[in-house]
Specification:
elongated; single chain; OB fold (Dihydrolipoamide Acetyltransferase, E2P); about 150 residues; alpha+beta; 5-stranded antiparallel sheet; 3 helices
Amino acid sequence: MDMSIAGIIAVTFVAVGAIGLAWAVIQVFDARYSAHWPKTVATVTHSWVSREEGSEGEMFGANVTYRYYVDGKEIIGNRIRIGGRVSQSWRGSSERLVAKYPVGRGVTIAYHPDDPTRGVLEPGSTKTAWSLVAICAAWIAISIFMLRDAV
């Protein structure tokens, strides 16, 4: 069977989608398990909305940095939720998230029991983590459709 360039590209897209889907599923499980991780008190050290220019225009993201201690060791964290950082073209949701965590505020964070540097400000499953699974699954479906037409 002779595969065309389109077929090779489609197979590559399926492989990339599969890798992305595996990563996204791991994020969903981490997010779920993070609700049961040990917790500690942290202090917010920085809190701001970032602005970036992208191919789709201005994008805004919430950024929160916090300091916490586990077994006497100082750790600096910046993960708000598990499932990746989301930037949006609308500034409002990032501003609302940052407003919840002003500099100096004491917050409770969860950290991975085997790797305390993997802290998270808002543990538990999120729409963001599940959205990544849906996007990767759609990517694979489209790629398989392309592959079907290519061979």
